[in-house]
Amino acid sequence: MKIRPGCAQHIGSRSEQQDSFAFSHIEDAALVRRAGILAVVADGMGGLAMGKESGATVVASVLGIHEALPAPDAPSEILEQAVLTANDEVLTLARDAGVEGDAGSTLVAVIVKDDKLYWASVGDSRIYLFRSGEMVQLNSEQNYSADLMRQVAVGKITRDTALNNPERAGLTNS
Q1: pLDDT at 150
Q2: Given a cut of 70, is residue 174 above it in pLDDT?
Q3: H or E stretch covering 86
Q4: Residue 63: DSSP 8-state
């Protein structure tokens, strides 16, 4: 398997880029054998305090866990520990800055190990698999809009009600 890391960002209409991303050290053969190859993206939450810092903290935390765990843990265990640690570190960042409860980030991370793909997702950032010319979204977005659309699917509310809900962009997990 050949892996070519890359990333493209677009700031859009925001005044500050709050996305952070990183790849593990692909050239470190021992790390790749032990823990696989990691890619991580975090998007600090616009409208809250410290979005840029929160995203950067998440990426650094996930990379640190991936590199530091000594045993050849299963990729799913590495990702679970990385998500928990990143959450704790963003909470500490916000608490230390006096904005507890008003900072956050999304997180998507994948590990490729032994020709298998493992992933973790928190928030509404997406993970896609591109294979044989087809792109498929792997994860579900954790936002209120997705919850509303599930209600539409089972007939609890109308599509128009869901699309016009003023809270539809809110995250249900971050």
Answers
A1: 80
A2: no
A3: helix 75-96
A4: H
The pTM of this model reads 0.78
> Which domains does the chain carry?
19-123 (3.60.40.10), 140-174 (no CATH)
How many C-beta atoms lie closer than 10 Å to residue 121's C-beta? 21
Task: State the number of CA atoms in the 13 A half-sphere of 124 facing the CB.
Answer: 13
- Helix axis angle, 51-68 to 75-96, nearest 10°: 140
Terminal Cα-to-Cα distance of the chain (whole angstroms): 32
Question: Quick one: which of 48, 60, 56 has its CA closest to 14?
Answer: 48
Where do the DSSP E strands lie in the chain? 19-23, 37-43, 107-113, 116-122, 128-131, 134-137
pLDDT for position 18: 76
Q: For position 71, what pLDDT does the model report?
A: 65
Which amino acid type is present at position 33? Answer: R
Q: Which amino acid is at 115?
A: D
Nearest CA-CA partner of 40 in 86, 90, 100: 86
Backbone region of residue 152 per phi and psi (left: phi > 0; alpha: psi in -120 to 50; beta: other values): alpha
